[in-house]
Design goal:
Elements lengths: L3 H21 L15 H7 L2 H6 L4 H6 L1 H13 L3 H13 L5 H16 L11 H10 L9 H21 L1 H14 L1
Length: 182
């Protein structure tokens, strides 16, 4: 019984953290210090309305912009689904792995954190994709997460991204950049 207690305590602590966040989460950001990397005030001054508007052109444009990525991450946190973006970013980083020795350990870490059933930050993928990824883990390669990453990208693009564009986070950010111009 004793070995189970830390596991149970960890789960309770995680639940308390999630529930505690409910009172702090908001779909509105008048203070962008929480979402912009580096020095937020300087970052917001450098972010043009045109750049922020371009995020609405396509999901990939949003993901390729440092501040767009930060704003989208903040939005996903309000929806408790930031694991999707974190998984996608982990896969992007994984694809840059050049060391064969690191490949297997990085792959295992990503699998255990995001793909495995009951993973701490399990992403929502179908059974076939999960099983294909599990088989790919037998001989990890730079492409072993491609299908799972594609599914998560598609899910974010079709589901979260349109909501982000309508969110108060995005509209507040846009209006703050526009106000700076006037």
């Amino acid at each position: 019984l004793t070995p189970l207690l830390p596991h149970i305590d960890h789960r309770n602590r995680g639940m308390r953290t999630r529930l505690g966040c409910l009172s702090h989460k908001s779909d509105s950001y008048n203070d962008f210090t929480a979402i912009l990397p580096d020095k937020p005030n300087r970052a917001l001054k450098r972010l043009s309305t045109e750049e922020a508007s371009r995020w609405a052109d396509s999901f990939d444009v949003l993901l390729s912009h440092k501040y767009g990525l930060a704003a989208f991450r903040a939005f996903l946190k309000t929806e408790f689904s930031e694991e999707n973006l974190e998984f996608w970013l982990a896969c992007e980083d994984f694809k840059k792995t050049r060391s064969a020795a690191k490949l297997a350990s990085k792959a295992q870490r990503i699998f255990e954190e995001f793909i495995d059933v009951q993973a701490p930050r399990e992403v929502n993928i179908d059974f076939q994709t999960r099983e294909l990824t599990r088989r790919n883990m037998q001989e990890p390669s730079l492409s072993c997460f491609d299908q799972a990453q594609g599914k998560v990208h598609s899910l974010m693009e079709k589901d979260s991204y349109p909501r982000f564009l309508r969110s108060k986070i995005y509209t507040d950010l846009l209006s703050q950049t526009q106000r700076r111009l006037s």
